[in-house]
Design goal:
Blueprint: E1 20-32, E2 37-48, E3 56-58, E4 64-73, E5 79-84, E6 86-89, E7 103-106, H1 108-113, H2 115-124, E8 126-134, E9 142-145, E10 157-160, E11 181-190, E12 194-197, E13 200-207, E14 212-223, E15 230-233, E16 235-239, E17 244-249, H3 253-259, H4 263-274, E18 283-287, E19 296-297, E20 302-305, H5 318-325, E21 334-335, H6 341-360, H7 362-383, H8 408-424, H9 426-440, E22 444-445, H10 447-462, H11 466-472, H12 475-480, H13 494-507, H14 513-522, H15 525-537, H16 544-554, H17 562-574, H18 581-590, H19 594-607, H20 609-619, H21 625-637
Parallel strand pairs: 1-11, 17-18, 18-20, 21-22
Antiparallel strand pairs: 1-2, 2-8, 3-7, 4-5, 4-8, 6-7, 9-10, 10-15, 11-14, 12-15, 13-14, 16-17, 19-20
Helix pairs in contact: 4-5, 5-6, 6-7, 6-8, 7-15, 8-9, 9-10, 10-11, 13-15, 15-17, 17-19, 19-20, 19-21
Bound molecules: ligand BES and zinc ion.
The site of ligand BES has 16 residues, from β19 and α5.
Length: about 650
């Protein structure tokens, strides 16, 4: 087999989308919970871009291919004839563990069996493939949960997570964010389960022959493959507003509707900032079982979130603000490859904080920015200052882009945008954002798209001074400088000062108990986190007595908010508080968000490698394959 090359436009994909590009995808899927399989047929419409008729190279990592056929269409656009095609799977690909084993489809049989059709192809430039597939246990983008792993423990559950490059583990596809297509999906599942796709529900009925619930979905806005999302289980739905709602496991819906009641507000504020409507019509959230490895995932029409957001007090709704913001930055204007991931996430953090600023005040925005900056510095130190992944725009080579996942694209990207906003002023910057969204929606871009709109506006507004201003922006330095950014954003926050001064007094045991508790209790979660961050940064000053005070006086162990709880466990593990181990075990058995479990496991490994390993070995199958891999790798490295 000829050696495959990574697509230079997106080195995380082998697909030849410059020669032939996927336009429409039609999928018919069902599930076998016993065998833990998703079984499907997809019909894909491609457009040929090259002058010759090319082979079709698709990304693939895990699924079994049952058959691939060429569909000859009649005038009514029905399949008049199916021609089986031959294909090869490159199982010797040097990056098979990260990028997969691509599929190379030859149209040779069309030329042989139907020369007329082949000739027509050179003119029409359009072709349809029918692919049958079945997922296998190697498919890391899909997780099947047993009923014991769900909230009611009554029925099994399934969900997918495609970002960054896991769509290829559901079915063969041009798995690059450079490629956008529309989708039509038909799901079938036994009663009383619901099987959803991230699109608009068109129709739903009970097939009395099979006794299956059938639902048809459509995604008319072209989307990249990483936004493809499926979920199935026993679920209920509640409305938040005319266009917003929540899906949850049975029993959680009321709580979730209350928790996410700000969704509509967030959308309205974002619409106003961008001066561009929410184009996706419906905004639904889906609360997953706890093994979901992220806080949130912006799947169109169906944002996935961790159940850990159900804190009871809306204190973690910034995650909702973030995912909603992706409806513009990310889902309308999309990064064209993973080197430009910051173009999705940096812009979205920027918007998330604009929304929080509108709802909670500017000081909250500053507080979040400082906390974000601390996280940035700690992640950069974790990688090492000279690591490729500390660049805003890194080169992933043949690695899985998920391996480079950190706060760098988020916070460095955010700081770059704040720098630009300061440079030209808030109103001008907002105008750039508005023009950028209008011009590039439905497209996939790299940073040059924004640069172009920005420079155009600077020229228009600053006339003679524009050259000087444009020269002040050192794009290369922002994009490719390793380590901590040399430009220092100065965020100052009153709330932060308050949090840090109380934390310092607490360390020095200056403050009386009731004052500390009263102040702490009334704070917003973000301020509490700033307080705990300060303590963690000064953990050498925490003695046994202070640690005990922390728990008993601030009721940290009773906190329902997982964000605060996990920070407390980091302190407890650092202080080797054996009596907290049962609580930590309980936490790790009921949380799957990597943001929490990774640092907690890492701190536990520091404290007691064998104790942590024994627990992980017993419980690892509770976790999502991705989370499991990340933590397993740490254990593999040894102490
Ligand atoms: N799109 C990301 C999640 C993601 C990124 C999944 C890369 C897989 C690969 C999502 O929008 C996100 O950023 N989630 C954050 C939310 C936070 C920044 C408020 C998370 O899950 O922590
Ligand atoms: Zn995001």
């Amino acid at each position: 087999m000829a050696k495959l090359i990574q697509n230079p436009e997106d080195i995380s994909s082998y697909s030849n989308f410059k020669e032939i590009i996927q336009k429409e995808v039609d999928i018919d899927v069902s599930l076998d919970f016993e065998k833990k399989q998703m079984i499907g047929t997809m019909e894909v419409k491609y457009e040929i871009l090259s002058s010759e008729i090319p082979k079709i190279i698709l990304d693939l990592k895990g699924p079994e291919i049952v058959s691939i056929e060429y569909a000859v269409k009649n005038e009514k656009k029905e399949n008049a004839k199916l021609i089986p095609l031959s294909y090869e799977i490159d199982s010797e690909n040097q990056y098979k563990d990260s990028l997969g084993t691509p599929l190379i489809i030859s149209l040779g049989n069309v030329e042989k069996n139907s020369p007329d059709e082949f000739k027509k192809l050179s003119q029409s430039k359009l072709l349809f493939l029918l692919i049958k597939f079945i997922t296998t246990e190697k498919c890391t983008g899909i997780q099947f949960l047993t009923k014991e792993q769900t909230y009611t423990k009554k029925y099994p559950f399934m969900f997918t997570q495609c970002e960054a490059i896991q769509c290829r583990s559901l079915f063969p596809i041009q798995d690059s964010p450079s490629v956008k297509s529309t989708y039509k999906v038909k799901t079938s599942i036994e009663k009383p389960l619901t099987f959803l796709f991230g699109g608009i529900k068109k129709n739903s009925y009970l097939d009395t022959k099979t006794n299956q619930n059938v639902t048809i979905f459509e995604q008319k806005i072209p989307i990249p493959s990483y936004l493809v999302a499926f979920v199935a289980g026993e679920m209920e739905y509640g409305k938040i507003s005319e266009r917003c709602g929540v899906w949850t496991e049975v029993g959680l819906c009321q709580k979730a509707c209350h928790e996410f009641k700000d969704a509509e507000n967030y959308i309205k504020i974002a619409e106003e900032y961008f001066n561009h409507p929410y184009e996706w019509e419906v905004y639904n959230l889906l609360v997953l079982p706890f093994s979901f490895p992220y806080g949130g995932m912006e799947n169109p029409n169906l944002t996935f979130v961790t159940p850990a957001l159900l804190a009871g007090d809306c204190s973690m709704s910034n995650v909702i603000g973030h995912e909603i913001s992706h409806s513009w930055t990310g889902n309308l204007v999309t990064n064209k490859n993973w080197k430009n991931f910051w173009v999705n996430e940096g812009f979205t953090i920027f918007m998330e904080r604009k929304l929080d600023s509108a709802l909670l005040g500017e000081d909250m925005e500053n507080l979040e920015s400082v906390v974000g900056n601390n996280k940035l510095i700690s992640d950069i130190k974790m990688f090492g200052l000279d690591n490729e992944y500390t660049k805003l725009s890194p080169d992933y080579g043949g690695n899985d882009p998920d391996d480079g996942f950190s706060s760098v694209p988020y916070e460095k990207g955010y700081q770059f945008l704040i720098f630009l906003e300061k440079l030209i002023g808030k109103e001008n910057f907002r105008e750039v954002m508005q023009k950028y969204i209008k011009k590039y929606r439905y497209k996939s871009v790299d940073h040059t798209a924004f640069k172009e709109v920005l420079e155009e506006l600077i020229k228009e507004k600053f006339k003679d001074d524009s050259k000087k201003i444009i020269d002040e922006i050192n794009w290369d330095k922002w994009l490719y400088e390793k380590g901590i950014p040399s430009y220092k954003c100065k965020f100052s926050s009153k709330l932060l000062k308050e949090a840090e001064s109380l934390a310092e007094n607490f360390l020095q045991e200056k403050e009386d108990k009731s004052t500390v508790l009263k102040t702490f209790k009334d704070w917003h979660t973000n301020t509490k986190l700033a307080f705990l961050n300060y303590l963690l940064d000064n953990k050498s000053k925490i003695n046994e007595k202070i640690a005990k005070n922390l728990k008993s006086e601030l009721n940290l162990a009773e906190e329902y908010n997982s964000e605060i709880k996990y920070m407390w466990y980091l302190i407890a593990l650092d202080k080797k508080m054996e009596e907290e181990i049962p609580n930590i075990e309980k936490f790790l058995e009921t949380h799957g968000r990597l943001k929490y479990i990774r640092p907690v496991y890492f701190a536990w490994i520091e404290k007691d490698f064998n104790q942590a390993k024994k627990f992980f070995d017993e419980k690892k199958y509770l976790y999502h394959p991705f989370a499991r891999r990340i933590i397993q790798e740490k254990f593999n490295k040894g102490k």
